[in-house]
Amino acid sequence: MTETPTRFTPLGRLITIVLIAGLIAIGVRMLQRNKGENRGGPSATASSSSGDSKAPAVSEAKNSVPPLPPGSPYVVPDDKTIAVEISKYAGYAGLVAANGGLDPNENSIFFKNHGFKVKLTINEGENWAELNIGKIAASTTTADVLAVYGRQFHAIVPAQIGYSRGADGLVVRSDIKKINDLKGKTLATAQFTEVDFFLRYLAQEAGLTVNMLGSLDATPSPDRVNVVYTEEGFAAGDLFLNDLKSGRNKLAGCVTWEPKVSEVIDKSGGTARLLASNKNLLVIADILVVNQGLAKQHPEIVDGLVHGLLEGNRLVRDQQASQLAVVGKAFGWTPEEAAAELSKVHLANLPENLAFFSGAIDAAGSFGDIYQSAVLAYGSDLVKDPPDPSHFVQTKALESLQKAGLFKDQKLAIAPIRSGAPRATLETNPLLSKNIQFLFEPNSATLDMNNPNNLNDLQAIKQMLTVSPGSTVLLRGHVDNARVEEFRRMGGDQYVRQQALRAMALSRDRATEIKRLLQEKYGVDAQRIDVVGRGWEEPVGTNSELNRRVEVQWFTVE
Fold first, then answer.
1. pTM of the model
2. H-helix or E-strand containing 313?
3. What would the CATH number be for the domain defined by 432-555?
4. Phi-psi map region of 124: left, alpha, beta (phi>0 left; psi -120 to 50 alpha)
5. Of 4, 16, 140, 482, which is least surrounded by CB within 10 A?
6. pLDDT tens digits, one per residue of 525-534
7. Class of 168-277 per CATH?
């Protein structure tokens, strides 16, 4: 018997078309959702729309660092094409320029000078397992990440790529004026990323610690900066914006990166502001990481990658206009967008690289300082048995280039980026304040220079000024108020006033002594330090030792 082919009725055809269209729409939405985020760039897409009524999910806070597989060497293929991963971020424009784009080709600096080709792949995930096991030859990250993963990260760092200068930011409710105001508040960010480190670094400098929460309904600690995590950085911005618009008031801010930083502020209706960015706070340092096995077996490839990177950085720094088209094509930007994104990064040259790794850099964070800051910021509960920063560093390629004189015309050139706004006046709007208990000789302004804590605290103030070009500090001296009532019994209010003036002078003399030591011992420019004496007018409590202090207020350039 012959079967009659089944035919759709007009209604059936209509229903089928609607179902197919619906499935296509769902598929497109899923692709967009899974596309991942970009660290920066005008076409970066958030994982969820800020206009959605449903807030992004809060991720479970990890109480340990994700494990990585054992290391294996990257095997150089027969065609000598090296696989290198980057993200969609202007900081990696030098690699793109050196390669003439993303695809391997014989016109690249790598091939012309060193005989191998490079395939650049954009991947927004952190593919450290792939780097460890030799699936890729090299990748890019930030210096703080090495402190998180420690010894299990089988990679070497042969070069700095540059600094982020404004791509990362801390956005807060408008009533929050400084980092210290975040005590007891809750913020959103992405765990084990540079924005997580940025928040922890600022909290640490303000004398605060971080408390991780598993949900927005968890009880925040009243004495710490509380943090909830989202799957990625853009979602943290969306979560905060959703909280602002809903009126739930669970969050005080977020730490994310551009363009989400600007988007949250623009859509907040004046209820959110930028508290801090890394435009002039250079602690987010981009670095090249190379598979450890490849570096041991093929040091000549490491030499070629470093040379090509620095030549590419030089092209973008010195001839930016000629590189906008190739950088824009690689990242999906117009030349104008590429120029705008490049304004948010500083691409490192050879002398800056050498100073970065040696610790001699005096206008930004060094590798060692950033690494150790990350170890301290994450704490021993998360970072266990961290290796010394030298465990990762391999500067032979940089030293060879210096010896060859290929970049002898280059100089350190890191300066503050000023927005045109006037500098904050004395004691107005510091980024943060920090109380330091310097040990002075009794009733004098002579600092005990044999006390190691005093030396460490002087170094900490100097480091504040180092990582933030153009920043200033105000040293506010304070003395103990424990004897005020005794003075009143001895001579009444007039005697108290006399002693108050002496206390004011002593507190100022002590702040001035700290300034003198910073100038003479650490070479700090006197114009970057202001002093004031407050006597016993501002006790922090009843503890006499805590009241004998020098308060450091840090003013950064935005």
1. 0.82
2. helix 299-318
3. 3.30.1330.60
4. alpha
5. 4
6. 999 999 998 8
7. alpha beta
